[in-house]
Amino acid sequence: MKQKVMSLAVAAVLGMTSFSYPANAVSNREIQQKRNAINNIQSKQSSIQSEIKKADQQIEQLKTQQAQLAAEMEKLDMEVSETSAKIRNVSQTISDTKQDIEALKREIAEVEARIKKRNELLKERVRSLQLSGGIISYLDVLLGSQSFGDFIDRISAVTTIFEADKQIIQEQEEDKALKEKKENELTSKLTSLQSDLQELEQLKQTLNKQMNEKEQLIAQLKQQEQSINEEKLSLAEEQELLEKQEAAIRSQLQQLIIKKQQEQAAQQSPSSSNHSSNGGNVPPVTDGAFMRPANGPITSGFGPRGGEFHYGVDIGKRAPEVPVVAAADGVVFRSYYSSSYGNVVFITHMIDGQIYTTVYAHLESRLVGEGQTVSKGQIIGYMGNTGQSEGAHLHFELHRGSWNAAKSNAVNPLSYINF
């Protein structure tokens, strides 16, 4: 199987016209450096996979907490519903009681009217007694009879009057007692119901407060989950870039091994792929590990900018078409459209045993694909204004090591390239 892979690799390398070899034979040191670079990338990939696994576990924990809170929310919803029903029932009872009070007021008015009439009658009796010179004895009435029949009649009249007085007084007392009893009873009932209603309303407010707290907590958990998901996506993107970078270095390693086995040097002029109608705008290949990636002024440097950190340099566009070239020999391990970078090319380089990564963002177009070997000064695209860009320019990053989402390996390109 390994021989088959090697044969395919040899065939692929022999068929590549853009591959360039150094003039001297490949050394074991160069091959070991590539292998060390691959081991370093694999170590980083393992670390990222652990971080992704940890993020997955955190997401599962958050989902479990959300499920528990959702169950509590459902229970609270039922309690709120029951409390609301009780409030409606008590409110209806209070309304009915108020109607009873209105009816009672009418009854009391009637009783008061009867009491008032009796009071008037009793006042008349008192006035009659006063006019007759004092209290008339029932015995005087009886002794004033003219005959036995008159005596009997007077006894009957006195008895009737006496009983009538007693009944008036009794009815008066009963009506007064009834009035007071009904008023006290309904007042007490209304006070009790109003107290119950206040208690239920406070309970409902408490439950609503709990619901709001739970909803806020769920919102926080969702935000945490979103943050972890974003971090996971960032890790996944970083993992993908590392995989592609590893593949690119493996490709370089295979080419070095094949070259060593063949013991021959194949050299391609760095400028052979630079000839185009825009030759005047192509920056000249310079000495040193890296060259400037495009002609134009530096419009924004490396460092803090607008409350954030700018991890590269911006090169302004000063011509209708500005070619962008590879800053050093390397392999394209990512060439795609990014929502932030726009059209972007990532190139990995191995220089003196050190991995470097260069990034060329906001391109109008890309001329190289993933896995392609490029030479220093080779045109890889044209300056543009794609992605999150405010005006045509090239955003160029240089990383001493592998690219990562935190951009912890980013260095100032001006320290490596004479612009």
Automatic annotation (TrEMBL):
It holds the Pfam family Peptidase_M23. Residues 261-303 are annotated as: Disordered. Residues 309-410 form the M23ase beta-sheet core domain. SUPFAM superfamilies: Duplicated hybrid motif. Residues 1-25 form the signal peptide. GO terms for molecular function: metalloendopeptidase activity. Keywords: Coiled coil, Hydrolase, Signal. Residues 108-182 form the Peptidoglycan hydrolase PcsB coiled-coil domain. The keyword Protein transport does not apply. Residues 24-121, 169-255 form a coiled coil. This is Peptidoglycan hydrolase CwlO-like protein. It comes from Anoxybacteroides voinovskiense. The lineage of its organism: Bacteria, Bacillati, Bacillota, Bacilli, Bacillales.
